[in-house]
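Model: You mentioned two targets. I'll fold them one after the other.
Researcher: Yes, keep them separate.
Model: Target one:
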Amino acid sequence: MKEHVVMKKSYGFLIVSVFIFLLNASLFSESDSPGATARKLPLFEGGVKGGLSMASFFWTGDHGWNNSTMFAFLPALWGFCDVNLTDTVGIELNAGYAGKGCSVDASDGYLHWYYHYLDFPVFIKWQTQDPSMRFYASAGGYFSKLLSGSYDFGVSGSSYFDGKGAMTIGTNDSPTFMHPYDYGLAFNTGVQRTHLLFEFRFTVSLSPAMEFTPPEEYGGSRGALNSGIMLIAGYKL
C-alpha cells in the first residue's frame, strides 16, 4: 500500500514540475525575448469532441495485459475549453462522458465489462503556431465518477451495477467491489485544421476500477485498472 501511495505522489510531483518548467520557459521566450510578437491566439477557445473508446483492463499483480484481454468498444463525448497561456502552451479542461471497461475471452465463455463514467480530464498542452495546420501534444490526468455499468458473462447472463461500491455476480457469495471513482494519467497527440480536430488519446488508471477474489484454485485476489486508447474527432468554435 505504501508503495502505491509513493508512486501516485511521484507521478503528481513529476507532472507539476514539468508543467512549471515548460510554462516558465515559454512565457520568458514569448514575452521577454527581443523581437517578441503579439499573441495570435485568444485566451479562451472551446468546442466539443467525441469518438470511440477502445477500453481494456490492466490486471494488477503479475497478469498485466494478457492475451485473453481484449478491447471493449464504447463511446465518449466531452465539451472542452482551451486556456491559451501563450501561443504554444495552454491548459485544456474537459467535462463529459467516457465509456470504459474490458472484454475477456475466457475458456468457458466471454466476459464483457462496461463502465459509464462522468469524466473530467485536464491537460497541459503544447502546440505549434501554424494557423492552417496546428499540431499538438498534451499530458495530464483525469478524475471520473462511476454512473453505472454492466457485467455480461456468456454463460450466466448480465448483471448491472451502479456507483455505490459493490455487486454480487451470479450465485457467488463473494462480492466484487466496484470503485465509485476512477483517476489516472492521460496523454494526447493530435492535429487541428481550421475548426476540425483529430486526436489519439491513451489513458491508464492509478486506482483499481474493481477488485474481487476468484475461486481458491486460481489463488490470490484480483484487481483491474482502466486503460485503453481513444480515437477522437472534434470541432473548435
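Model: Target two:
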Amino acid sequence: MLNGYRSAGESSARRGADRRSVDLRRRFGHPAPVNPAAPILLFDSGVGGLTVLAELRKLLPQAPVIYAADTAGLPYGEKTEAEIAARVAGLLGRLSERYSPRLITIACNTASTIALGMVREVLKVPVVGTVPAIKPAAAMTRTGAIGLLGTAATIRQGYVDRLEAEFGNGHRLIRHAAPGLVEAAEAMLRGEAVDPAVFEAAAQGLRSQPGGDSIDTVVLACTHFPLVEPQLAAALGPGVRFVDGAQGIARRIEFLTRGQPFAREAPDLALFTGGEDTFAALAPALKRYGLERTEPF
C-alpha cells in the first residue's frame, strides 16, 4: 500500500489552520508548557482510526494515547451533515474537557469533511483532520482513472469536489459509496467471517461506471477501508494501487507535537459510546494496537 497523503496540507487554507493550531501552544514566543502525560486523542466513529494509530505508534511509540470510538453513532456515512456536525462537536467537547488532550485527531473522513472547521473554532487545542488523498492519487495514476471509495456522506461533500478540482490534475475521479466495507472492517476485527460478496460489490461499483475499467489507483476515503485492503485488492484485480492518509496524518501529529515531553503513566485507553458487548468483542484486537484498557464513555 502506498501512502503519500499529507492529511492537513492539501490547501493553503488548511495549512493556515494548522499554523493557527501550532500558535495555540505559543505565548510570547515560547512554547506553552505541556503535561507529559497529556494524551493524543484519536476519534473515529468506530475502529477505522486504528489504521492511523498503527502509523502513529511507529513515529511516537512513547506518546500516551486515548482512542475514542463513537460506536453508538455508527455508521456516520448514513447520517445528515447536521447530525454528524452536532454529534462530533459535542463528543469532542466532552472528551477534551474530561481528558485534556494535547492534540485531537479526527481519524474519520466523514466527520472531518463535515465538522473539522467547527471543531477547530470551538476547541482550544490543535486538531488534525482527515480528507481523501486525491492529490497523491493523481500523482500515482498512469491511466488517469482514479477510484474513490468512501461513505455516502463523504463522497457527496463539496469539499471533495474542491479537492478534485484543485489537485486532480484533470484526471477522472470515479466515486462509489461502499458503507458495507465499514461493517466488514468492524466485523473482521471482532474475528467474524465476512461474505466476500461485500468486496466484490465495492469493486463492481467502481468498475461498472464509465471509465471504471481503466482504474489503476483507488483512494480509500474512509479510515476503516485499509483494514480490508487485501480483500479489495483481490476483488479489483492486479495492477491497482491504493492510497490512504494514515502515514500522512501520523507525520502531521509528530510535527505538531515535536519537542514536547511524553510520559505514559497508565496503559493506553480505548473509549466506546456503545454498550459493553461492543468493546468486549474488540478487546483482543485493541490490545494488538497497544490499547490495554477499555471503558464506556
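Researcher: Noted. Anything on target two?
Model: Confidence is low (pLDDT under 50) at residues 1-15, 20-30.
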